[in-house]
Amino acid sequence: MSASRCSLSLLFLGANTPWVYALAESLATCGQQVTAIATFDSRNFRRLRPSWPGREQPARLQREFWVFPPGYVGTLARVFGPFLRSRLARALARLDMAVRSEASAWVIAPYPWFVEALRGVPDGRLIYYNLDDYVLYKPTRAATILRQESELVRRAALTLCLSQEQVQSLRARYPKRAHCIQHFPLGVVDDLLNLDTARPPKGPVVGYIGNLIDRVDWRLVQEVAGRLPDVEFHFIGAMNGYGSGGTSMSWERERAAALALPNVRNIGPVAQDEVGRYYWNFAVNWMPYATGHAFNKASCPTKIMDGLASGRPLLSTDVPECRLYPEWISIVRSAEEAATQIRKMLAAAPSARAREISRRQVEFVRERHTWTRRAELLESWLPQIV
User: Fold this and answer.
1) CA 351 to CA 361: how far, in whole Å?
2) Range with the lowest mean pLDDT among 129-143, 236-250, 264-278, 311-325?
3) Residue 375, helix vs strand vs coil
């Protein structure tokens, strides 16, 4: 850690997702003392058999799995709240001892249903890390989720939102806390940076990486692939995941029709350490998201920075978060426009100008949007709000 950086201690409660863990890991790599806690109910723990990423664990990162009975943050939250608060207090005490600091640690919580556990944390040391519009997870519990989120936003010294749409939404709902609500988009792990963009992709292949669910506009996929029979379209990902928030009731039939086309390949899920290779080998990365899907409107897709880190052209439908990067993401609004753009991108790929753009694209991500840069940004913010 450089001499100009302040020393911090941070505890992540709910470091279950790769992006929450990536921020915790990067802060520890930058020299901060960090505890990352992934929480599960016992049924999901047995079903998922979770493990930490295979990357080398930073010396200043402590990792823990906490497993509880089902309902511990739901129907039984009031019962388990005191136990969670006690366990969290002990974890914070260990963290404070590790840094031998008189200042309390920062607690970063990504889910509103942790409110019961967080009531022992001082408001000035609480950070709410908003990943999504959580009402979309369980619409039947919307009132409860909004009440929990309201408590977190009002108590938190800082609210970090992955998407700009969520920044605007939360600022509108909580105008008195607007100055504490900041955009903090997803970063990218260094392994996904393509440092050899001069190496050509493997043929005229347009690729998508992600769950193959209703967030994809499968009718658009079918139309675009049909217009480009000489281009291959590869889909990498599982066939399951969130299946709500879309506008089409027939999306599964549309998916089946798209994946059955002769120039469309359904490759299925791949190991996380292989993802970068696929991104780099595609001639064009695309994100054919359904623009009417509520999740897509409120999200910061991982595909943005992961795709840009490949150095390959990135094509997307009009997802709000993509509008923030007009220099690097081509937004299309019809199948005809998408097919035209893909043809142009494939034709331009061998040119010296395209290679230079590719190099600058990766440099843009490396300089501004790695998880190390995200960690440094948070380091710069926290001392200002103590």
Assistant:
1) 15
2) 236-250
3) helix
335 within 8 A of 227, measured Cβ to Cβ: yes
- Start-to-end CA distance of the chain, whole Å, equals 20
Q: Residue 350 — pLDDT band, cuts 50, 70, 90?
A: confident
CB atoms within 10 A of CB 111: 23
- φ and ψ of 35, to 5 deg: -115, 125
Q: How confident is the model at residue 386 (pLDDT cuts 50, 70, 90)?
A: low
What one-character-per-residue DSSP string does 179-207 give? GGEEE----B-GGG--S-TTSPPSSSEEE
Both tokens of residue 267? 């490759």
Task: Read off the pTM.
Answer: 0.93
- The Cα–Cα gap between 265 and 41 comes to 36
**207, 284 in Cβ contact below 8 A?**
yes
1 pLDDT band, cuts 50/70/90, is: very low
Average pLDDT over residues 165-191: 97
| Sequence-distant contacts of 188-191: CB under 8 A, at least 24 apart | 188/305, 188/306, 188/308, 188/309, 188/365, 188/369, 188/370, 188/371, 189/22, 189/55, 189/370, 189/371, 190/370, 190/371, 190/372, 191/55, 191/273, 191/276
Output the DSSP codes for 90-125: HHHHHHHHHHT-SSPPEEEE--GGGHHHHTTS-GGG
Look-up: residue for tokens 């995200």?
374
Domains and CATH numbers, the chain: 9-186+371-385 (3.40.50.2000), 190-368 (3.40.50.2000)
Q: What is the mean pLDDT of residues 166-177?
A: 98
